[in-house]
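Bench notes, afternoon.
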Amino acid sequence: SVAQNLTIGPVGALFSAARGGRAMSLGVSGDLAVAAGGRIDLTGRGHDPGQGPGASVSHNRGDNSTGGAGHGGPGGLALGGDALLDFRGGPAYDSLDNPVLPGSGGGNTSLDCGFGGGALLAQVTGTLTLNGRIVADGTSGRVFAQTGGGSGGTINIRAGSILGSGAMSARGGD
C-alpha cells in the first residue's frame, strides 16, 4: 500500500514479489501515474508450470506434449493435440467480472512449460493515469518441447477515474 500518490517514471518499473496463489495488492489514497515507458509488470508471477486451478491436463506418453493453462477461458490444445486424448488445455476458473486470482502454469511441472501471469488488485482513490503499461501475461512453453503456455493473470483496478493512452494485458503464453 502507498499512503498518497505514486508515480512510475518513463524508465521505472514496479515488479511483484508475489508468486503462486498470491496477488499483489496496491492501495493508493491519491493518484497513480504510469508514464510512457514505465510499467507495472507481473509477467510469469502466477503459478509455476503444471500448478494452479487452470493447470492443463497431463498425460503419460513419456514426452512433454501438454496443453496450455486456462483462466478466463479454457487453455488451448497441445501442438498436434486431440481433445479426446490427454492433450487438452486446463479448465476455466475465476470470476469474469471481478477476477482476483493469478494465472495457472501450463503443461506439467517441467520448467520447459509456461508460468502463469500474476494478479494485480489495485484500489486508487483518485485518478489512474496510464501512459505506460500494466502487464500480467503468462509465459510461453518451449516450442521444441511442445509444452503448454501459462495462462494470463489478473488486472483488477478500482479507480476514481482512468485516463491515458497506455495499455494493459493479461495474455496467455504460447
